[in-house]
Amino acid sequence: MNIPHALKFLGKYAAHPMRIGAVCPSSRFLARRMAEAVGDLKEGDIIAELGAGTGAVTSELYPLAAARGAKLYCVEFEPSLAKILTGRFPDAIVANDSAENIGKILGEENFGRVRAIVSCLPLVSLPKPLVAAILDASESVLPAGARFIQFTYNLARSPESLGFKKMAHLGVSFVALNIPPARVDTFAKRA
Questions:
Q1: For a Cys staple, 99 with which of 1, 22, 50, 147, CB 3.0–4.6 Å?
Q2: The whole model's pTM is what?
Q3: Looking at per-residue confidence, does 18 or 130 come out higher?
Q4: Number of independent structural domains in the chain
Q5: Which of 56, 51, 143, 146 is nearest to 99 (CA)?
């Protein structure tokens, strides 16, 4: 873990706990689990990461995308965190924007190429209208079969509680080696 990035993250959490959602960045174990859930990639595919923070999960997605000739888009609302991402991952496309604007960020011409959306957003602590807008926007850019991967610290939560309209739940896994332990849910867009 990069100590300056972790301290920056902690400072953002202290200022906006409901928006940041965690006291420290995700562990490499959680990051690896989320990257594994992306599935097969081919050249020209797109991975979009929502709420990329300081790049804990990005650090696993970035080499995965590069090795397969895929593009990685990172969406981060906090300007100072987006700046860190731009410096750490020069080949990623970093958007300092809200996740509900994922369609505008990707551009309609890319919708068919999105293989996965990896969400690091604290959806359970965000306002319900914003969560609904993020999920609707995410579903609109994903082609049939593409994945939406979400982690949460609420280990008992029902995946249906997210409120997807067009997604099927593929499975759940747990990551104990994270502070706090996390649950990873993987969804796929129905045809």
A1: 50
A2: 0.88
A3: 130
A4: 1
A5: 51
